[in-house]
């Protein structure tokens, strides 16, 4: 009984390590290449929701398929893939930037809440993992099947950005309070 | 001394621009190109003589910039089908032949200059990509028309 539970725990741990290693490898391969285009790296606001839906929408594909022209279908696949990858890179760059700001604010904060910090960190790790998966899946299968995952990444990035904003506001309020340097 | 409310004035200039100029242009793509053409390539500042005469040049610049961004986001949110119709409307309103405009637009991509400054990079890429697709679709339609026209002419012509 004891042996089998340790075997399960060991296997789970090994799988977790493999997953983390794979995600790191994917992130380093797919998110760093191609390099960020102009405007992608200094983005401070997430892409509006309606555009995320548009990038991953199947409606445009249905329209293109109706034209019945192979070269236009191929052009559409290539173009939409490029835009979807740009969105993933932009989201990933934005969230890394938000986390850098968050780390800065957290260093200056005097009353950090561990549970809040853990929640932000978990969301950040989850978001980076989703971005890596999205990036690979877009390259392999194209963006048209990934609308749900993209919307999830979008919601998560908004949540992390909001949490960072409130922490920053709190640290500013703390700094402005009389008696604090 | 009363300081004029700058926001209200920009709004007023914006309304004036919509009423007097933009409403007379058909199609958002034509509006986008018109608004981009009021921007100085070197300074990035917008200028419109009529608007600057009614309001201050700085206010006119802000109103033009606001209109440019709004038209851009509106057109970028369109479906590909709607965008094809929008590009078609623009090309049909041009004095040059449709084929010539399509060819030049595909080669030079002049619509890239129509992007406002500091718009979301992914949205800008989506817009450029969709225009590229719309041009390819229109070119294909034109080629199909060219193929079909002699056929229909042959069909219409009396048998010898």
What does it look like?
The complex is a heterodimer of chains A (181) and B (160). Chain A is mainly α and 181 residues long. Chain A has six helices and no strands. Chain A is 78% helix and 0% strand. Chain B has 160 residues and is mainly α. Chain B is 70% helix and 0% strand. At the A-B interface, helix 2, helix 3 and helix 4 of A face helix 7 of B.
Offer a concise description of the structure.
Chain A is an all-alpha fold. Chain A has helices spanning 2-30, 49-55, 59-67, 70-108, 114-141, 147-176.
Question: Helices, strands, pairings?
Answer:
The complex is a heterodimer of chains A (181) and B (160).
Chain A: H1 2-30, H2 49-55, H3 59-67, H4 70-108, H5 114-141, H6 147-176
Helix pairs in contact in A: 1-5, 2-6, 3-4, 4-5, 4-6, 5-6
Chain B: H1 6-20, H2 28-37, H3 49-54, H4 57-76, H5 80-93, H6 98-108, H7 121-156
Distance between the termini of chain A: 59 Å
| Largest beta-sheet characterization of chain B | none
Query: How many distinct helices of chain B?
Result: 7
Low-confidence runs of at least 5 consecutive residues of chain B: 152-160
Q: Radius of gyration of chain B over alpha carbons? A: 20 Å
Number of helices of chain A: 6
Q: In oligomeric terms, what are we looking at?
A: heterodimer
Average pLDDT rating of chain B: 88
Mean pLDDT of chain A: 80
Helix content of chain B: over 70%
- Percentage of β-strand residues of chain B: under 5%
Supply the number of structural domains of chain A. 1
User: Count of DSSP E strands of chain A?
Assistant: 0
Q: What pattern of helices and strands is seen along the backbone of chain B?
A: HHHHHHH
Content of β-strand of chain A = under 5%
Shape of chain B: elongated
Based on CA inertia axes, which overall geometry of chain A fits? flat
**Low-confidence runs of chain A (pLDDT<50, min 5 residues)?**
none
The total strand number of chain B stands at 0
Structure class of chain A: mainly alpha
Structural class of chain B: mainly alpha
């Amino acid at each position: 009984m004891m042996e089998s539970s340790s075997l399960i725990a060991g296997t789970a741990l090994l799988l977790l390590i493999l997953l983390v290693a794979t995600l790191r490898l994917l992130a380093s391969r797919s998110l760093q290449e191609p390099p960020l285009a102009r405007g992608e790296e200094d983005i401070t606001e997430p892409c509006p929701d309606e555009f995320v839906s548009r990038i991953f929408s199947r409606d445009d594909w249905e329209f293109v398929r109706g034209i019945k022209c192979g070269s236009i279908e191929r052009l559409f696949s290539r173009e939409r893939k490029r835009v979807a990858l740009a969105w993933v890179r932009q989201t990933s760059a934005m969230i890394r930037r938000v986390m850098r700001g968050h780390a800065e604010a957290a260093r200056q904060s005097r009353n950090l809440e561990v549970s809040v910090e853990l929640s932000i960190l978990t969301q950040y790790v989850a978001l980076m993992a989703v971005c890596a998966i999205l990036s690979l899946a877009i390259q392999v299968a194209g963006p048209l099947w990934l609308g749900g995952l993209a919307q999830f990444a979008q919601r998560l990035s908004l949540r992390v950005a909001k949490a960072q904003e409130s922490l920053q506001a709190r640290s500013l309020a703390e700094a402005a309070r009389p008696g604090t340097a | 001394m009363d300081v004029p409310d700058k926001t209200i004035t920009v709004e007023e200039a914006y309304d004036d621009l919509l009423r007097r100029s933009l409403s007379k242009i058909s199609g958002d793509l034509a509006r986008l190109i018109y608004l981009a053409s009021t921007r100085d390539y070197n300074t990035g500042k917008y200028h419109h003589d009529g608007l600057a005469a009614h309001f201050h040049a700085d206010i006119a610049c802000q109103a033009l910039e606001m209109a440019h961004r709004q038209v851009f986001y509106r057109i970028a949110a369109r479906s590909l089908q709607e965008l094809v119709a929008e590009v078609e409307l623009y090309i049909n309103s041009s004095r040059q032949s449709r084929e010539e405009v399509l060819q030049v637009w595909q080669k030079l991509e002049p619509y890239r200059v129509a992007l406002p400054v500091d718009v979301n990079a992914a949205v800008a890429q989506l817009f450029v990509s969709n225009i590229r697709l719309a041009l390819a679709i229109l070119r294909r339609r034109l080629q199909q028309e060219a193929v079909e026209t002699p056929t229909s002419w042959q069909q219409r012509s009396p048998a010898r």
